[in-house]
Specification:
Length: 154
């Protein structure tokens, strides 16, 4: 497993995506969250943690999403995300948010020295910026970093 500092190229932003944005991107690849994820993949490095991946895995496994995309496609999304994201070692734990799952996002960003967090969660958005790390809605991320150039990737 490599760390973000080992693969960082100049001017590549380190970006943490909240689970809700990743799920939206998995279910609706052409949505604003899907576009934000594609753009982050093009210009930066995705940061995650083992805890965030476990949460994403649990949410994507929910049967209620079968009506949007198959479990197999959701599994492919998860595998691709895990293979391309850099895993952050969480040395500093946080207890800031009403929902402890939101603290996982902040921990990834803080410990990974992220350039920003992309989230649609109001509980996280009200913390903008968190210790100097901007917390952006997917549309704001696209506004700041541009639309994805490759529409075929999801």
């Amino acid at each position: 497993m490599t760390t973000a500092s080992e693969t960082l190229q100049p001017h590549q932003p380190l970006v943490v995506f909240d689970t809700n944005v990743l799920v939206s991107a998995a279910l609706f690849p052409r949505s604003i969250p899907g576009q934000a994820l594609r753009r982050a993949r093009e210009i930066g490095i995705l940061l995650t943690t083992r805890d965030l991946v476990a949460e994403l895995r649990n949410v994507l496994a929910r049967n209620k999403f079968d009506r949007y995309v198959s479990a197999a496609i959701r599994d492919e999304f998860l595998v691709a995300y895990i293979s391309e994201a850099e895993f952050v070692v969480v040395a500093e734990r946080l207890s800031v948010c009403r929902d402890p799952k939101d603290d996982l996002v902040l921990e990834a960003a803080l410990n990974g020295q992220a350039a920003c967090i992309v989230s649609g969660d109001d509980d996280l958005l009200v913390l903008h910026p968190f210790r100097g790390i901007p917390i952006l809605r997917p549309a704001e991320f696209i506004t700041h970093h541009g639309a994805p150039t490759d529409e075929s990737k999801s």
